TrEMBL record:
A Pfam family: Fer4_11
UniProt keywords, alphabetically: 4Fe-4S, Iron, Iron-sulfur, Metal-binding
Residues in 4Fe-4S ferredoxin-type domain copies: 58-155
Record-given protein name: Carboxypeptidase regulatory-like domain-containing protein
Domain of life: Bacteria
Entries under PANTHER family matching the protein: PROTEIN NRFC (PTHR43177), PROTEIN NRFC HOMOLOG (PTHR43177:SF3)
InterPro entries per UniProt: 4Fe4S_Fe-S-bd, ET_IronSulfur_Cluster-Binding, Ig-like_fold
Keyword presence, Iron-sulfur: yes
Organism: Adlercreutzia faecimuris
Length: 269
């Protein structure tokens, strides 16, 4: 069984996969596998862009989202009269003729990657470029055009241990996996308010909710510190710098990354 593997560390956000999917399916009918994809309203391969953090520490994350051709496909269970079927190669296909009027197929997908074609009154989604596979292609168009190798088409047995499925599809045994998706991070700058200078080489510690040290770093030549790959949980940033009062600041990464910005140290009287 083949699977698509996305490596976030290699993606540069070019949107090539999204555009290639549109090029392949808009204006082209690949019956009996797929009817033409509408020009607007549907992205069978969609690149989500998330802006994380805030000025002065901002990062942009790109993640392609597409049908995972799940082993336990909710769309197949919701379909009537065999309107959704699995091919021998594992690709899950919505029959453009049998599925007419079956809007429940759209509603069944936990990842919301099945779309309703109002004009044709049919559900539509990524086919894994099954028509190209039948013509001898080794990978779907989205994978084929990826210039950085962020998307690859591999045997599922070769999926790295650190790769994970989309959380909402975990119970469905999907065949699209993601790796190196950045976890939470905390950023700040230590500043001497009186001298109007950054504090270099100071040790900053990150503590968990129980008061245990998670990590320790030193501020760089710009007074900056960064804690990366953190769990989504409450944290506290602590700094004890000679000549200054101790600092303790909340840094809760439960729902988002934390940018503390300039942290002004107060000299000991």
């Amino acid at each position: 069984m083949k699977a698509i593997l996305f490596d976030a560390s290699l993606c540069n956000g070019c949107y090539g996969c999204q555009m290639a999917c549109k090029d392949e399916h808009c204006g082209n009918s690949w019956l009996p596998i797929a009817a033409e994809q509408p020009l607007t309203g549907q992205f069978w391969c969609r690149v989500d862009q998330e802006t994380r953090g805030k000025t002065p520490e901002v990062k942009v994350q790109y993640t392609p989202v597409l049908c995972a051709h799940c082993e336990h496909a909710s769309c197949m269970e919701a379909a009537e009269d065999g309107a959704v079927y699995r091919r021998e190669d594992g690709l899950v296909i919505i029959d453009p003729l049998k599925s007419k009027g079956q809007r429940q197929i759209v509603d069944a997908c936990p990842a919301h990657v099945i779309f309703w074609n109002e004009e044709l009154e049919i559900p539509q989604k990524c086919t894994g470029c099954a028509h190209l596979m039948d013509d001898g292609w080794e990978a779907p168009r989205c994978v084929d055009v990826c210039a950085t190798g962020a998307l690859t088409y591999v045997d599922e047995a070769d999926i790295p241990d650190d790769a994970e499925p989309m959380p909402v599809l975990a119970d469905n045994h999907p065949h699209v996996y993601y790796r190196h998706i950045p976890r939470r991070w905390v950023y700040g700058v230590l500043v001497d308010r009186v001298a109007n200078e950054v504090v270099i080489g100071a040790t900053v510690r990150l503590m968990d909710a129980a008061g245990n040290e998670v990590a320790a770093v030193e501020t760089d030549d710009f007074g900056e510190f960064r804690f990366k790959e953190l769990a989504s949980a409450p944290h506290t940033v602590r700094a004890s710098v000679a000549g200054y009062e101790d600092v303790a600041l909340a840094a809760d990464t439960t729902d988002a990354d934390v940018v503390l910005g300039d942290i002004f140290l107060k000299a000991v009287a």
